[in-house]
Structures are given as C-alpha cells and as structure tokens.
Amino acid sequence: MRGVAALFLLVALVPSCVSHERDPFAWLHSPRGHGFLRVDSAGGECPEECDCPPTFPVAMYCDGRGLTAMPSIPARMKYLYLQNNLISAIPDSAMVNATNLVWLLMHHNQLTSDAIGEQAFAKMQGLDRLYMQHNNLTRIPSNLPGSLRDLRLNHNRIEKLTPAELDQMDNLTILYLHDNAVTDVGTSLKGLKSLILLDISGNNLKTVPQALPEVLHQLYLEFNSIDSLPEGFLAGVPQLQYIRMAHNQLTDKGIPQNTFNVSGLVELDLSFNKLERIPLVSTTLQHLYLQANQIKEFTLGSFCNVVDVSNFSKLQTLRLEGNEISREDIPHESAQCLRQASNIEV
Fold first, then answer.
1. Are 314 and 342 within 8 A, CB to CB?
2. Which residues of the chain register pLDDT less than 50?
3. What is the pLDDT of residue 241?
4. How many CA atoms lie within 13 A of 120 on its CB side?
5. Does residue 327 sit in helix, strand or coil?
6. How far apart are CA 95 and CA 130, in angstroms?
C-alpha cells in the first residue's frame, strides 16, 4: 500500500502539461522572450507571450503584456493586437512574415520614428487599419501601403506633413492627426482621393490646409491658431458637411463674406474665437455654434435675406451664449426666419 500511495503522489506532482494535454494557461507563467513559438491547439504557431484563439486562428492578441519588443508573427495572421505595451521599435525583420495583416493595432506604446524600419509596412498590401496613436512619432512612417483606409496617428509629436509620406494612399478614408505639433501641411493632402474625415485639431496650424480632398465630409480644426480663411475656402470641397473650428483666433476681418454660405454644410462650429458679428450662412445649415465670441448684435440677415412661406432657414440649433447679446436682442421677425430652430441658446 505504501508503494501505491507514493505512485499517486508522484502523478499529482507531474505538471498537467506533461501528464495530459498542454496547459492552456501556460503562457501566464512561461518565459516571455522574443521569438519563442509554440503550437496552439489549432495546429498553428503562436508566440509564447501572446494568445491565438483556436476559434479565431488568424488573430493574435498580445495587448497589455508589457512587451518591449515585437513578437514573432506567423504568416497566417490578419489581425494583430499589440496596443498598451512598451514596444519602442519596429525593425524590418519583425514584419517579414506579416504580409497578410489587415488590422495592426499598436497604439499606446513607445514607438519612435527613427526606430521604425523603412520597409516595415511595405509588403502589407492588404492592410486596412493602422492604429499608432499615443506614441512618440515625429513623422508619418515611410512606405505605408496604398490599401490603408483608416490611419490613426493622433497624440504623437508629428510636426510636418509631406506629400511623399501620403503618396499613393488612394483608399484612405479616415485620418486622425489631432494632438500633435503640426505647423505645416502644405499640399500633402491633395492626393488622398477617398478621404472623408480629417481630424487635425490640437496642433499648431496658423492657416487651413491647402488643397483639401474633394470628397471630404468632415473637417476638424479645433484648438489651433488659425486667424483667417482664404477666399473660396470651401469651393474645392463640395461634399463637406461638418466643420469644427472652435478655439482658434478667427476674426470678422479674417472670414470672407460668403465663406460659409454654401448649400451642403450641415454643422458649423466657430465657438471660442474672436468674432464680433454672426457670419453669413446658408439657409440649409442645421447647426451653428458661436458661443464664447464677442458678438454684439443679432443680425437676422446672416440667416435669411428673404422670408416667406418657402424661404426660411433650416437651422435647428443656434448657440450664442457667452457673447455680448441677450435674448432681448433677438428681433421678433426671427420667429419666421428661424421657424425650425428648436434650440436657441443666448
């Protein structure tokens, strides 16, 4: 009996990964070195420091693991989650097998521009989303694939954009560049033929970007130092519907008279600027934000030239609080012109 008991004790002490199948939680206590691969239960390779679910074998989850270097990437992977780590470099060699990636999420790391290989992204011809926000980049990475549709580079240290950095990106529809240190855009956006959303707020711009893409729908320029707009600012962007330019230095003199009198515009935010009068807007505009300016007069002509049964403003929201006017300054005739405005704040 003593021998049988000893045998049972020995079996109990043998790790489950030896006595039975591999421990599915072994990665939690295994060494996390770079380049170690194990075979997952689906039969494919997976780095020890990551998870590759058998039910989703083309995805690799390495997020929030404290990684300081890129893991080995099996060629089958399409979705790679590397966010919330301490990775500081992407050498070309790290991406040799990553030619099938569709999503690459690397936000909240410690990446620097000089530590990203020139050809790191060059072979990813199917890459659709690249998230690199909240890093330490000073420029847009080189040789980004033309397949990209969603590029997020906000909360970095980028100071300048050049046409070469965004060349051949015909499919890009979303570009987040907010909260950087951009001072110059030049004509770098001209070639982005599919761009519908551009967020470049929270930078150091003094002028609006030149040569905006024609199909642009949403333009966010808040928290810059823009004090004037060029003549015909919106002529080249007929599909633009949303403009947000709050927290700039705009004055009446810096806005040509008919700048915002365009029929396609739905929302216009000019709050927290230095305007002294309400700018002329189209009767089709639906939401106008002008709070915290220096407006001294409610000019009904800014909304309606002619008022009758069929001619009136489509404005629904008008924000004017924090100016130098009160509700008593709104003329009685405004009820006809602004008949759809259910929310007027003064």
1. no
2. 1-36, 41-43
3. 98
4. 17
5. helix
6. 14
Query: Residues with Cβ < 8 Å from 249, sequence gap 6 or more?
Result: 225, 226, 227, 273, 274
Contact 216, 237 (CB under 8 A): yes
Tell me what pLDDT residue 38 has.
54
In the three-class reduction of DSSP (H, G, I as helix; E, B as strand; rest coil), residue 59 is classed as strand
pLDDT digits 0-9 by tens, 282-301: 999 999 999 999 999 999 99
CA distance 138 to 33: 29
Nearest residue to 198 via CA among 269, 261, 157, 185? 185
Place of tokens 């009198």: 261
Smallest CA-to-CA distance from 236 within 257, 256, 270, 262 is with: 262
How many C-beta neighbours within 10 Å does residue 240 have?
22
Angstrom distance (rounded) from CA 164 to CA 80? 27
pLDDT at position 144, please? 95
**Residue 34, C-beta contacts closer than 8 angstroms, at least 6 positions apart:** 69, 70, 71, 72
Return d(Cα 143, Cα 136) in angstroms, integer: 19
pLDDT, tens digit, for every residue of 234-287? Answer: 999 999 999 999 999 999 999 999 999 999 999 999 999 999 999 999 999 999
Polymer length in residues for the chain: 346
Distance of CA 156 to the CA centre of its chain: 12
* pLDDT score, position 310: 77
Tokens (6 digits) for 7:
């045998």
Nearest to 59 by CA among 121, 27, 120, 104: 104
Strands 287-289, 174-176: pairing kind: unpaired
Which among 93, 90, 34, 103 is positioned nearest to 66, based on CA atoms?
Answer: 34
